[in-house]
Amino acid sequence: MSRKGCTRFNYSEQNMNLAVEAMKAGSSAKAAARQYGVPRTTLTDKFKGKSPRSRRMGPSPVLTDIEELEVVQWIMNMNSAGFPVTRNLIVETVSKLIIELGRPNTFKDNVPGRSWFNSFTRRHPSLNHVITRNTGDLTTEKLIQWRQQLSTYLEKHNLLHVIRQPTRVFNSREAAFCLCPSKSTQMVVRRNFKYTSNLNEEKDYLTIQLTGNADGMLAPPLLIVPYERMPLAMGRSIPGSWMIGKASSGWKTSEIFLDYISNGFLPWLQKKQIELPVILFVDGHASHSSMALGKFCKEHGIYLISLSPNYADIVQPMDVAVFKTLRTTWKKALTRWKSEHGRTFKRTDFAALIDSVIKDTVTPDILQSGFEKCGIVPWNVDNVDFTQCPDLIKNVSSATLSSQLVKFLEEFIYPETVSLFEEYEHSDDWQTGLAVEDYSLFELWRKLKSKVKRNEENISFSEEEEDEDGGEDNSSDYD
Questions:
Q1: Is 276 domain-assigned?
Q2: pLDDT tens-digit map of 400-449
Q3: Which residue spans within 370-442 are E strands per DSSP?
Q4: Range of 83's domain?
Q5: Residue at a domain's end among 341, 359, 384
Q6: What keyword terms does UniProt attach to this protein (predicted)?
């Protein structure tokens, strides 16, 4: 008895199917139920089609088996393309899917909870090694592993010939631009112009998404404005070729990015007669990972690939070559604009100014150099600047500091004494050859020298590992 007054029958799904087949062959429900040990009422319902033959305990599922398999396939595809697939991303995706299907949503806040997620992963145990839970510290080794995973993906999807064609390899990246100069910027305002700074303007930013390829071509930008209903003056200020995304937060959403790809990027590819498929490198943001976006891109020959998370300064062409220069030029242009106009810079002024800055700054050579420095086009891991990885930076910084301390110390020691220190550096009998007053100084000098040597050995060891994993003989990377 599982509950008072309620008997729970224990029977297998196989026995129930045999009982149903027996009834189809002419047996009565009572006889079939007794023969196979199944409840008669349940057997009758299954025989008449009132309940499914497949036995499932508990409440009705929110998704059918086929729909769940589609979610599983989406997760596997995202993972193989380098996207981090987290629990939050999965439950938010399922929540949107329920709304799209017009199903009643009984979850708290309309989002599946931990109980549903745990049941989902138990039904699909293959996802346990795919779902991202904790990436841990970022290291050179993980970056090399990501390159190897990406090479496998390119080979699996027959994209190795595409990665060698600069016109078919793209990077898309967004950045926020402040609408006021920094406090440290000195402004020279024309005579007879009175400029009054608005304290709130320092917090005002607009986000723009740039997409370019390794051949130096720049697609029309996407401007994200913090409106649900955009003012008419704002709309008139934006170039007609640009795409506009509207979000009250001012940040990109999955719906905005899907609209940009389907109504902006793809038509531009077709207009420029760029051969499909193309590769579009993006970061691992959730706005790039929706099921709807993945389905659209797959149907239209756009392969979305996530560049290694948190390594933007190393692997994102837009970050490496474009945005640093663009932000510097933007600040100068904004300061110059305010000095010439003598008034507050408004949102309606943004598009015209950033458009001119982009045209002057983002040249084909700069775009091409970004892809080359990131080792994407040409596909060559040797071009990646691994010295910017956090683990190597730590070692290099420590070694540099220790080396500088040694040089600083030696500047205050007589050259003859330094020569004696070097002579006895590895000797156990150093006290016999040095003056007593130099004992403490020598011990400090030798400790610093020893630390420099250890750090240099650590850096050398890391570089040797890079050569083994990313050299010319590594079949995972292709030139």
A1: yes
A2: 555 666 776 677 677 888 888 888 888 888 888 888 777 777 887 887 78
A3: none
A4: 65-123
A5: 384
A6: DNA-binding, Nucleus
pLDDT over 60 (residue 466): no
Let me know whether 301 and 165 are in one domain: yes
Question: Do residues 168 and 304 both lie within one domain?
Answer: yes
Same domain for 281 and 159?
A: yes
pLDDT at 453: 72
Return the ∠ at Cα 232 (arms to 230 and 236), rounded to 5°.
Answer: 105
User: How many domains are contained in the chain?
Assistant: 4
Distance CA 201, CA 347 (A): 10
pTM (2 d.p.): 0.69
395: which 2 tokens?
A: 């070692």
Q: Which two tokens stand for residue 97?
A: 């899917």
CATH code of 278's domain: 3.30.420.10
DSSP 8-state secondary structure symbol assigned to residue 368 = H
Instruction: Determine which helix (DSSP H) or strand (DSSP E) holds 462, and give its type and residue range.
Output: helix 439-470
**Between 420 and 312, where is the model more confident?**
420
Q: In this structure, are strands 205-213 and 222-225 parallel, antiparallel, or unpaired?
A: antiparallel
- Residue where a domain terminates, one of 359, 384, 409: 384
Secondary-structure percent of the chain, ordered helix, strand, coil, rounded to 5: 55, 10, 35
* Calpha distance 117→63 (Å, rounded): 13
Give percent above pLDDT 90 in the chain.
35
Q: Is 440 in the same domain as 378?
A: no
Q: Where are the alpha helices (DSSP H) in 2-107?
A: 13-24, 29-36, 40-47, 65-80, 87-101
State how far the Cα of 261 lies from the Cα of 209, in Å rounded to an integer: 12
